Amino acid sequence: MVSVFQALSIIDQNTEALSPMLLPLSEVNGCVLAEDVKAPINLPPFRQSAMDGYAFQHGAKGNLKLIGESKAGDFKEFEVSISDCLRIFTGARVPDQVDTVVMQEHVEKTSDGIRILKMPEKGTNVRLIGEQIKKDEVVLEKGTQINAAIVGFLAGLGISKVLVIRKPKISLIVTGNELQEPGTLLEPGSVYESNQYMLEAALQSENVELIHSEHVLDDKESTYQAIQKALEADLVMISGGISVGDYDFVKESLEKNGVEEKFYKVNQKPGKPLWYGKKDEKQVFALPGNPASSLTCFLIYVTAAIRKMNGTATIDINLKKGRMKGNYKNVFNKALFLQVKERGGELEVYPKQASSMLVSFTQSNAFLFVPDDVKEIRDGDEVMYIPFKL
Ligand SMILES: Nc1nc2c(c(=O)[nH]1)N[C@H]1C(S)=C(S)[C@@H](COP(=O)(O)OP(=O)(O)OC[C@H]3O[C@@H](n4cnc5c(N)ncnc54)[C@H](O)[C@@H]3O)O[C@H]1N2
Ligand code: MOO
Question: What keywords are annotated for this sequence in UniProt (predicted)?
Answer without folding.
Answer: Magnesium, Metal-binding, Molybdenum, Molybdenum cofactor biosynthesis, Transferase
